[in-house]
Please model this.
Amino acid sequence: MSEAKEITKKSQSNLAFAFFCLPKAKRQDITTFYAFCRQVDDAADDPDVPLPERRHWLQGWRRWLLKAEPNEPGFASELRILIAKYKLDLRLLEEVLLGVEMDLEPVRFEHFEALHQYCYRVASAVGLVSIEIFGYRNAQCKEYAHKLGVALQLTNIIRDVDKDLLNGGRIYLPLGELRMFGYSEEKLRQRIYNKAFVRLMQFQAERAHSFFREARRLLPAEDRRSMLAAEGMRAIYHALLRRIEKDRFRLFGKTYRLNNFEKAIIMSGQIASKSVG
Model:
């Protein structure tokens, strides 16, 4: 098994699950790109590695994207082939690196505008590269990828509130919105579950729903089939968000996920709808 494939398989990600609907060649290519995204994200988050070493390693990727070096990651050469094959915009890969580097510092966002930039870097930029691999005809797919990336990342942020607190006390919820709902950082750190917290999280969920709706609206009809993997991600994450909402955001000490059977059912529905369409 290739290093990229092994990284993707171990991640057990919703995104990785959606890749199975792709033709073999595109599945291999997106797996290589996803391995890059997964590895740089994991490296930024690794508390066992000193911060200067993490920064140095991420900086190394800026060179490895351009040319071979001794001791580079095993799939770096495959990624360079992808960049040439699909004429990938290196600025998007730079956005991904800038996004994960934001996690090297204490995470705080005062307003949604700053959080939106983070979501664009760690999720929308990933989507914008992914659609180049999937293939599309209508340039509106780029706005679709942007909006969908934000929706997916906002869902991750909601799901991972407790996990992020454990990981260095990270808070991705806009601090101004905590104050707006009368829910303090201290209450969040203490994992206080009350009506104010539920209202705060419902506000976050409604924002995510708005990005999901906008993404669906922007998807060009002629590209629905080529965006099948992306639409699978949208449907899986949207189902996850609805599950969390239905349970009233009991995020402290509880993990929300869909099992593989549930994901397979959702993906089958997407495949069937695109075949009919």
